[in-house]
Amino acid sequence: MNKRELAERVAESTGSTKHLAIQAVETVFDEIQDAIARGEKVSIAGFGIFDRHNRPARTARNPATGATVQVPPTVIPKFRPGAGFRANVSEKSQS
User: Fold this and answer.
1) Cys-Cys with 85: which of 7, 37, 69, 81 at CB 3.0–4.6 Å?
2) Going from the N-terminus, what domains does the chain have, and what CATH number goes with each?
3) What pTM did the predictor assign?
4) What are phi and psi of 40, to 5 degrees?
5) Which of 51, 46, 30 is nearest to 87 (CA)?
6) What is the pLDDT, as a whole number, of residue 95?
7) Cβ of 39: how many Cβ atoms within 10 Å?
8) DSSP labels for 1-58?
């Protein structure tokens, strides 16, 4: 499912227009991204937690040449599914 398909399902579920549903979905995604970029944790009960993780600098190897390369530290987004999310996926994958 992509963002457009998600918005279509939201529109169907809420009786809203596709245009409003697309705006709502994009706004939710933008707000989550902005909060994580600011260093905030986004916790949605029953769904999961969006957070950021600091990756330290490290030495890696270029597979083509074998030369070592310094990889700078970076910050990456992380998602941990909630218990309700995990249970729902587990239940539906068994049927």
Assistant:
1) 81
2) 3-86 (4.10.520.10)
3) 0.79
4) -90, 155
5) 46
6) 66
7) 9
8) --HHHHHHHHHHHHT--HHHHHHHHHHHHHHHHHHHHTT--EEETTTEEEEEEEEPPE
